[in-house]
Specification:
The protein contains twelve helices and 14 strands. It is of the alpha/beta class. It has two domains: 192 residues, Glycogen Phosphorylase B (Rossmann fold), CATH 3.40.50; 142 residues, Glycogen Phosphorylase B (Rossmann fold), CATH 3.40.50. The strands form two sheets. An eight-stranded parallel sheet has the order 3-2-1-4-5-6-7-14, with helices on both faces.
Length: 370
């Protein structure tokens, strides 16, 4: 009996969370291929990043910085690959775009939520790519989107947005929430008010992460509220890029603000354990992993009042939300915690969402392969 062919296209997934998704996907498919019913082909940038048994690889080292190469590959080269592999039973694109391919069934994993990002002149100065993503994401998604049998997203608000913007039926959008990470913290930590109240924010030095609202809030606490018994650690060193340089130039002199730089996971989790509160001000996320990580400690979290944060924080015990462009709102909540007032923190109930919803790669492919 001929095996049914599954093709995974993921030429743009080379680092961080998206690479983790590719690895998880291929790890599952490697085991599925062992059963003998399916053949797996993965179109990737470098197979050494994801070298699993029972999978054939097609590598493409296209110049990542040239979008014309990316578009040509998605809508011309991918089509040629699909014809050469014919017949393809399922073509699953893991990176937002719906390539032009010949396949019996098609699906796309949608990570990029920049269509929901309200970019500013600030972004054009420090990260013009972010502004361009915000402008063009809708056009990128729209191409071929209705040729998919299914879309896969991580959150229900994302599903509703894709339904509203692109008129894709909700029944064709699968919510696949990431599994909660088990970090093995030494013990659950209740909120403790020490002489020096400690806040932390872990994020990459990109403008949409919104580090500046924390910097401005620290400045308010020191200069207007005369508060000094606190510290804030942010995972920016100050020399990584134009945005990081700007942050350090304007607020690096603040003694209560610690520019720690990038941290390996073990060091970061130790910082979590030693801190009193997580601040997460990012203006755009597909999930917001530090929220999931930190919530295991049952400590306070101050989160941007945005749909992704509300959904990721479900189940957390001590949470408050702040307007992500209002540094005084954040400073006031920080002041309350420093002074021992946590009465404004609330639990975030878990909400049930309608299907299709999956909790594992096995569940996801049981739908995609029907």
């Amino acid at each position: 009996m001929d095996k049914k062919l599954i093709v995974i296209s993921a030429v743009n997934l080379v680092e961080a969370g998206t690479l983790a998704i590719l690895r998880e996907c291929l790890s599952y498919l490697s085991k599925l291929a062992d059963h003998g019913e399916y053949k797996i082909v993965a179109v990737v940038f470098d197979k050494n990043l994801v070298d699993y048994p029972n999978i054939e690889y097609i590598e493409t080292q296209w110049p990542k910085k040239k979008w014309i190469n990316r578009l040509w590959y998605e809508y011309v080269s991918m089509n040629n690959i699909s014809k050469s592999l014919n017949p393809v039973y399922l073509w699953f694109s893991l990176h937002d775009t719906s390539p032009t391919v010949k396949a019996e069934r098609r699906a796309v994993y949608c990570h990029n939520s920049y269509f929901n990002y309200k970019w500013r002149l600030h972004d054009l100065i420090f990260a013009p790519k972010i502004a361009l993503f915000a402008i063009f994401t809708k056009f990128i998604y729209r191409t071929n989107i209705h040729k998919n049998n299914y879309l896969v997203v991580q959150q229900d608000w994302f599903r509703q947005a894709m339904h509203t913007i692109f008129n894709v039926p909700v029944s064709k959008i699968i919510v696949a929430r990431p599994e909660s990470p088990l970090l093995g913290f030494m013990e659950e930590s209740e909120t403790v008010i020490n002489d020096m109240y400690s806040f932390v924010f872990a994020g990459s030095p990109n403008s949409h992460k919104n580090f500046e609202i924390i910097c401005k809030s620290v400045n308010i606490l020191i200069k207007e509220y005369n508060i000094s018994n606190f510290k804030v650690s942010i995972t920016v060193k100050g020399n990584e890029n134009k945005y990081a340089n700007w942050l350090f130039k304007n607020w690096g002199h603040l003694e209560n603000l610690h520019f720690t730089g990038f941290m390996p996971k073990d060091s970061l989790f130790k910082l979590y354990e030693d801190s009193n509160c997580l601040i997460f001000p990012s203006k755009i996320e597909s999930w917001g992993l530090p929220i999931s990580e930190y919530s295991q400690l049952n400590k306070p979290m101050l989160l941007a009042d945005l749909p992704y944060a509300h959904e990721t924080a479900e189940g957390a015990r001590y949470t408050a939300f702040f307007e992500p462009t209002d540094e005084r709102d954040l400073a006031d909540k920080m002041r309350n915690l420093i002074n021992g007032d946590s009465s404004f923190l609330k639990p975030i109930p878990r909400k049930s969402i309608k299907g299709p919803v999956v909790k594992s790669w096995e569940d996801l492919f049981s739908i995609l392969l029907k």
